[in-house]
């Protein structure tokens, strides 16, 4: 994929999609790949995409027109050497451009691969002098390739830029000639008596010298436009940001266009583009304005890092010459406007005089005039009424729009005032609540302080052994205890559930009930674990041997011989045995 990088000379008027913008590689540790794109950079990229789309559409249209022309020539079997040669030349240009683009993409891919290979080597390289030396060599090779590629493409870029400027100049001259021809055709007098009368009256009023002077002014303005384009346009090929920064620094030192036009150029600074630095330094020591210019250029050399000091000084001289040309152009245009205003006033005066003359004439003479003039007056009146009606309608629409806008503004103001009022009331309410809380807290503190002071003054009040105090506390405690007991009893009655039926006794063989007194209680009998604690170590070993001989494990766990990886133990070694069955549950069964 073809990648584009910004170039400082991007504002030159050329096709951006046919040229690869390159830039000299600069090692920088402050800027990273995660730097956000600014608003102007984003706008510039969007413009590039827009221009590329437009140029693609134009190329498609040109290709379609060319193919249609060739097909029409083939159908008509006309021999046209110039058309065929032109089509062949255009096809050759397209093929060469495609070949250059493909070659350029291959070179970019080669440089990218070498850079990626060097980067991968750098990541996988170890701390070894040989590896570091090889890595340095690869980095130098990569930088040399990038620099050579940049230099080659910059030369091609300059060549294409110069060709495009010359082509645009020729196209502009051709378009101006076309405009002159169209104006000349539209100004040709039409057949008709009224038109002949008007042209005759105008030719009688205007002198030949005024017309020649007006044409001379137009020619001078066009010549000034061409001269401005010859001196490298309106920015000398600089970038928008750089030129704006240059003008901003000049304004900081109070070097606006008026000051430079009125004082610097008037004092005779040389504005040639090949002027040397000594010319400026000689003027710098003469006036305070010159010192300001010198300081401004020094600051420009520091701020505009992509331009050298000589380039900035040359740009300043170009800017002075550009201001001269623009000032001259403005003067010519203002003088041309003055001539047009005089011409308009003269025409209006003639029309008024003619209308007054017609009004003063008798009716018979007026009726004898040409019918075409009356028809023309009727048409003019109709057009005037139509224009007045349109203007009235537009004024009505403007008034309605203003009224709607005022109503919207008033509604918005009311809503804002309502919100502000609600917010103020809410804040006032919060403030009053806080203030009330503070007052209550202060009152409580004061009451506590007064109570403590009274207790200190009269110790009988705080004596717990006083009869009245004890009696009151005793009565309150009894009352609260009774209330709590009643509450607990009520809660227990609510939570009490109905008990299940007691189990029935098992009838013996002699058909008489065994009472609870006849059943021997085993509740106090010792458990097996407690009995085991009374045995000695020898007795425990004998018991374990007896279990092994009697195969107690196989009886408790069947098929134990088939599971050799499982450690099986009987319940005899467990120190905690289940408790014995209570006596009241023995020999019982549920009904």
Walk me through this protein's architecture.
- 4% of the residues are buried.
- Among the domains are: 143 residues, no CATH class; 155 residues, no CATH class; 51 residues, no CATH class.
- The longest helix has 87 residues.
- α2 packs antiparallel against α3, α7 packs across α10 and α8 crosses α9.
- It is an all-alpha fold and 591 residues long.
- It has a two-stranded antiparallel ribbon with strand order 1-2.
- The chain starts with 38 loop residues before the first helix and ends with a strand.
Lateral arrangement of strands in the main beta sheet: 1-2
Helix and strand sequence: HHHHHHHHHHHHHEHHHE
By DSSP (H or I, 4+ residues per run), the number of helices equals 16
Share in helix: over 70%
Strand content: under 5%
Low-confidence stretches: 1-35, 183-206, 270-278, 568-577
Please provide the count of β strands.
2
Query: Roughly what is the average pLDDT, rounded to an integer?
Result: 71
Report the span from N to C terminus: 92 Å
Could you tell me the radius of gyration in angstroms?
Answer: 55 Å
Shape: extended
Helix/strand/pairing category: mainly alpha
Report on the biggest sheet.
2 strands, antiparallel
Question: What topology does this entry show?
Answer:
Elements lengths: L38 H38 L4 H44 L4 H58 L6 H13 L2 H23 L9 H13 L4 H8 L12 H8 L3 H16 L5 H52 L2 H5 L3 H87 L9 H29 L8 E2 L22 H5 L4 H13 L2 H5 L31 E2 L2
Antiparallel strand pairs: 1-2
Helix pairs in contact: 2-3, 5-10, 6-9, 7-10, 8-9, 9-10
Q: What are its keywords?
A:
two-stranded antiparallel sheet, mainly alpha, 591 residues
């Amino acid at each position: 994929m073809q990648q584009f990088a910004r170039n400082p000379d991007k504002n030159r008027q050329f096709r951006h999609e046919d040229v690869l913008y390159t830039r000299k590689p600069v090692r920088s540790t402050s800027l990273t790949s995660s730097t956000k794109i600014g608003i102007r950079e984003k706008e510039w990229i969007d413009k590039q995409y827009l221009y590329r789309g437009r140029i693609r559409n134009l190329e498609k249209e040109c290709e379609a027109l060319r193919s249609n022309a060739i097909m029409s020539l083939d159908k008509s079997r006309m021999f046209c050497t110039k058309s065929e040669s032109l089509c062949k030349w255009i096809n050759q240009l397209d093929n060469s451009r495609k070949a250059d683009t493909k070659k350029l993409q291959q070179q970019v891919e080669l440089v990218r691969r070498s850079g990626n290979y060097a980067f991968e080597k750098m990541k996988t390289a170890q701390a070894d002098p040989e590896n570091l030396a090889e890595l340095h060599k690869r980095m130098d090779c990569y930088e040399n390739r990038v620099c050579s590629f940049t230099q080659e493409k910059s030369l091609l870029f300059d060549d294409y830029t110069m060709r495009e400027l010359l082509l645009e100049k020729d196209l502009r001259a051709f378009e101006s000639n076309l405009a002159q021809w169209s104006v000349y055709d539209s100004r040709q007098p039409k057949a008709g008596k009224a038109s002949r009368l008007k042209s005759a009256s105008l030719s009688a009023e205007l002198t030949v010298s005024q017309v020649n002077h007006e044409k001379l002014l137009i020619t001078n303005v066009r010549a000034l436009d061409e001269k401005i384009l010859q001196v490298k346009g309106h920015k000398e090929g600089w970038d928008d940001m750089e030129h704006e920064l240059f003008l901003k620094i000049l304004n900081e030192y109070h070097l606006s266009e008026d000051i430079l036009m009125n004082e610097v150029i008037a004092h005779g600074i040389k504005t040639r583009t090949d002027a040397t630095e000594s010319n400026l330094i000689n003027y710098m020591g003469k006036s305070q304005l010159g010192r300001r210019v010198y300081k401004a250029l020094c600051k420009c050399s520091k701020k505009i890092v992509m331009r050298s000091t000589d380039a900035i000084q040359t740009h300043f001289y170009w800017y002075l010459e550009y201001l001269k040309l623009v000032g001259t152009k403005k003067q010519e245009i203002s003088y041309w406007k003055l001539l047009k205003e005089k011409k308009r006033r003269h025409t209006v005066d003639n029309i008024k005089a003619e209308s007054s003359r017609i009004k003063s004439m008798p009716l018979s003479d007026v009726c004898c005039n040409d019918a075409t003039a009356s028809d023309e007056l009727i048409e003019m009146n109709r057009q005037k009424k139509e224009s007045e009606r349109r203007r009235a309608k537009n004024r009505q629409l403007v008034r309605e729009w203003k009224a709607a806008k005022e109503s919207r503004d008033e509604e918005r103001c009311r809503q804002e005032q309502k919100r502000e009022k609600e917010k103020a009331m809410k804040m006032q309410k919060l403030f009053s609540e806080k203030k009330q809380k503070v007052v209550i807290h202060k009152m409580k503190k004061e009451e506590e302080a007064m109570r403590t002071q009274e207790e200190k003054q009269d110790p009988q009040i705080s004596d717990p052994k006083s009869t009245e105090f004890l009696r009151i506390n005793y009565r309150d405690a009894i009352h609260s205890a009774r209330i709590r007991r009643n509450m607990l009893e009520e809660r227990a009655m609510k939570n009490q559930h109905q008990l299940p039926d007691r189990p029935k006794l098992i009838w013996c063989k002699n058909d008489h009930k065994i009472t609870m007194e006849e059943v021997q209680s085993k509740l106090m009998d010792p458990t097996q674990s407690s009995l085991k604690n009374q045995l000695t170590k020898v007795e425990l070993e004998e018991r374990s041997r007896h279990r092994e001989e009697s195969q107690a494990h196989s009886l408790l766990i069947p098929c134990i011989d088939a599971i050799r990886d499982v450690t099986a133990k009987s319940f005899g070694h467990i120190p905690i045995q289940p408790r014995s069955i209570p006596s009241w549950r023995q020999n019982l069964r549920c009904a």
